[in-house]
Design brief:
alpha+beta; 8-stranded mixed sheet; 5-stranded mixed β-barrel; elongated; binds 4-amino-1,4-dioxobutan-2-aminium adenosine-5'-monophosphate; binds magnesium ion
Length: 479
């Protein structure tokens, strides 16, 4: 007999038919010679109920049907008398495929996420992680579908690179050299000519620079791949290995970039509501997030606020005057801390904010420079800033903070070179990038969405380590 997945078995109405299901025992209870098994095979958050009579099975088999055990069940599909389920299976044959003794770490209900992280290889079999992983898959499908439907080409950028896109130096090195026997020059600098690539290479922090090559040839591309950052940030929002989606679009301006950011996120949230109903309903509970679905629906109704950084600083300064206390300073020119972002999003506007026109000094070299005006500059909708600003355009979300980092790109070779030299950046590995501005340069823009931050928002989970199967964080590369 062919196996029926639990998700399909639950939809069947051919009562009386023979059926075969296989999966893991979530729980077993029994009374008066009858036992009930809740069986789950990962295809859905829902379990199928298996009913059996002790007398029809040998005692040894029944004993092995414990929480976590893997079993194969043949029986008859029947209408269920119990509330909350349409069908159940009257078992005629049960085979224990993999027994599971009391040392199984996921045996108890309601274990802490902290505990489950230490058993990340087994936590996938819990209801919560099953739900999160199915939603994760669905979000990947949403993303590919959105871009495909909007004429973007899926573009693969390298993971191993010799350039530092964000210029922050948070890169993991890639080498085949014997680290105990490094060849160095007279100044003590490592010589890489005998290394695999013949030069210093690292894991990418962003595919953007190569993405720009794609966009300025194909019109609109997106990447979706692993990204690596060796930042020593032990926060619930940072991973050392995360997945990033980076669309890049030729002929796009600042307003259109914001439109895209907003439309894209809303599409993903709508997809979750349309396609992940059962899992969202499960996650929408008092232990996890009792307002999850309400919050997701709320975001769809909101028009995101479009706010120049300078105006944001004014709002924060005003709040301080009125008695609001922040741990970190927020004067014009400061990089906003997450407490500032959250104040703007959660307390002041109470909706997502697209912040734009950041001070040049706190953003990356490639962003489009706003027109200067004296010591300052003029940006979005004529907003005058006291210093130079760039068209960096980030999306700030409730509970998450920065979910998207994006910008219009500087298309003028001269201005871009000016910024690179002001930052004393080494152009050896950027000449190919500058060629996009040398030959047929065009206005273009793009952004990067942190996939796990989107999953955090959509699932209501609190810690980024709990929305990726095997998190990589400082001092942790287990599994
Ligand atoms: O703001 P970031 O650093 O922007 C870039 O890398 C640009 N090159 C993107 C672009 O314009 N194509 O990163 C983009 C997003 C952030 O908004 C955040 O959501 C996520 O990536 N992100 C991280 N997610 C998890 N762990 C980390 N350590 C992250 N760093 C950034
Ligand atoms: Mg950023």
């Amino acid at each position: 007999m062919q196996r029926t997945k639990v998700i399909d078995a639950l939809k069947r109405t051919d009562y009386g038919s023979d059926i075969l299901v296989e999966g893991w025992v979530r729980s077993k209870r029994g009374s008066k010679g009858i036992f009930f098994i809740a069986l789950n095979d990962g295809s859905t958050i829902k379990n199928i109920q298996i009913v059996g009579e002790d007398q029809n099975f040998d005692e040894a088999t029944v004993k092995l049907i414990t929480t976590g055990a893997c079993i194969s069940v043949e029986g008859k599909l029947v209408e269920s008398p119990a509330a909350g389920q349409a069908v159940e299976i009257q078992a005629t044959k049960i085979e224990v495929l993999g027994a599971c003794d009391a040392t199984y770490p996921m045996q108890k209900k309601g274990q802490s996420f902290e505990y489950m992280r230490q058993h990340a290889h087994m936590r996938l079999r819990t209801n919560t992680f099953g739900a999160v992983m199915r939603i994760r898959h669905n979000m990947a499908m949403a993303i590919h579908t959105y871009f495909h439907e909007h004429g973007f080409f899926y573009f693969h950028t390298p993971l191993i690179t010799a350039s530092d896109c964000e210029g922050a130096g948070n890169m993991f090195q890639v080498t085949t050299k014997n680290l105990y026997d490094l060849k160095k020059d007279e100044q003590g600098k490592i010589i890489y000519d005998d290394d695999f690539f013949g030069e210093q290479t690292s894991l990418t922090v962003s595919g953007q620079l190569e993405g720009e090559l794609g966009a300025t040839a194909l019109g609109a591309i997106y990447t979706f791949g692993p990204t690596f950052r060796a930042e020593n940030s032990n926060t619930p929002r940072h991973l050392a290995e995360f997945w990033m989606i980076e669309p890049e679009i030729a002929f796009m301006d600042q307003e259109e970039l914001m439109d895209l950011e907003e439309d894209f996120i809303k599409y993903c949230v709508r997809w979750a509501l349309d396609n992940c109903k059962d899992d969202l309903e499960f996650l929408n509970n008092p232990r996890l997030d009792p307002h999850l679905i309400e919050r997701l629906e709320g975001v769809l109704k909101e028009t995101f606020v479009r706010l120049p950084y300078t105006e944001g600083i004014n709002i924060l300064q005003e709040a301080i005057k009125n008695g609001k206390k922040f741990e970190f300073p927020c004067n014009w020119g400061d990089d906003l801390a997450s407490e500032h972002e959250r104040y703007l999003v959660e307390e002041h506007f109470k909706k997502p904010v697209i912040m734009t026109d950041y001070p040049t000094a706190i953003k990356s070299f490639y962003m489009k420079q706003n027109a200067p005006q004296g010591e300052g500059s003029v940006g979005y909708k004529g907003c005058v800033a006291p210093g130079p600003t760039m068209q960096g355009t980030d999306v700030l979300f409730p509970a998450i903070g920065e979910i998207i980092g994006g910008s219009v790109r500087e298309e003028s070779l001269e201005k871009l070179q000016g910024e690179i030299s002001r930052r004393h950046m080494d152009t050896t590995h950027l000449e190919w990038y500058l060629d996009t501005r040398r030959w047929g340069s065009c206005p273009h823009a793009g952004f990067g969405l942190g996939f796990e931050r989107l999953i955090l928002f959509v699932t209501g989970m609190q810690n980024i380590r709990d929305v990726i199967p095997f998190p990589r964080t400082p001092k942790n590369a287990a599994f």
